[in-house]
């Protein structure tokens, strides 16, 4: 179509140029005819003869090589006046028409390979012509006939036409290039981008939009594609969010399942589950209310994501917390908002005096309820609603929480029973000899006093207490005769006594939960200089608990009565400890023992 438009334009331009050239030739020849007429009339007025006129015509032809023929034709008045002369008669059809025409005539044709223009200019009688010729005013006296060779002129025209054609071809090429550029910018490039985006979408890449949106059809297609990609990104984002949430929930469910039967204390189990509930369900606070023996609910712990205002202690009973007790009896949850009509005690326990909403769900195991979990949300319900998904996850986690607490309680009972059994074994050792009765308890008291002096507390003191009560458990294999012997022990008997730290460690080694106490029991007879038993280690290689036990054990051995001597006063015993500092005992611990001002039990 573009080519057709350009060809039409070229044809119209060519026709226009041809018309312009014809008009130009016509005007030039008319001006030439006017000049010749003026010259001829002037010469005739001056009385020039026919020979002089012919000579003038010849000179004109000689000066202008393009003029092939110049003749003056006689019209009817001159033929009547002077007679008919052959060389003055019309020869061509244009000349004949020119004698009858009131306007100049022009004709173009080819003769013998040359471009010829024939021009006939009519001559009319003027006032001055009537002096010599028998004619009326404005009557045709004849015509001026010119035959001109326009070959060079036409050649230049054809050259210009060729140049024009080349120019049009150049314009066509430029226009095509411009059209291609416009199409590439407005059509092809957006289409390629659209295709690439579709390929990326097929491969799962929806990270960017396509440029080129507009009001054109292609622009609207691109806009629709970008909207579709944005919608898919939104859906995938929601799906990824759900997957992340479900993955997090599943990982927390798996993590919390590890707490079941882990042997952790109940307080740690409650703390970990509370933190997990807050993180997984994205609530503001998790509060655990435990039931005591009087069926009263008390706040056992609370885990908030940010500091919350303190509340005065509140106890929940059947009377002041009817909605919570209803949930406990039905073993189902209740979901309340801050506008709910509930008792003041329930409002405080559920934190609805500050929170926007709260869910209360009982927890327990095999029909036995331990308490309730309260999840409070302080943010607006539109931002973080407690929906069905959160409730479902809450059920699963709280179910595991109940099982974990039951296992924790069973584990604590088992540990308690096991410790009672082991302590009974240790006490039975002391009963083998009246002289060692109460020894383990006294050593434990001295060791804990020394440990407190150097800054021990909490679990460290508890481990030291258990180890102190069990430190001579290995003597269960020592015969009573050796324990009650009043004289000096033989080498064989002393060797038997020396085995008791190792024997005690072997006994406890069969009980996994008692492994933390083994190092203190095995090494409480090691010397600071490495001369002790059973392994001969020294310095800081000896566990600090064992070094504490060594000082306490030696102090009780010196201050307690024996079959063969009376016990020493505390001051003398401490002096002997100081004498052994650096060799048998840790000097820093001996100094701390002295600062503790321990009295004999």
SS-based class: alpha+beta
The CATH topology name of the largest domain reads: Hypothetical protein af1432
Taking the sheet with the most strands, its summary is: 5 strands, antiparallel
Strand order of the largest sheet: 6-5-9-8-7
Highest-level CATH class of the largest domain: Mainly Alpha
What is the percent of helical residues? Answer: 40-55%
Overall number of domains: 3
Q: Strand content of the residues, in percent?
A: 5-15%
Query: How many strands in all?
Result: 9
Counting H and I runs of at least 4 residues, what is the number of helices?
19
CATH architecture of the largest domain: Orthogonal Bundle
Q: Return Rg in Å.
A: 64 Å
Gross morphology is rod-shaped
Distance between the termini: 119 Å
CATH homology-level superfamily of the largest domain: Hypothetical protein af1432
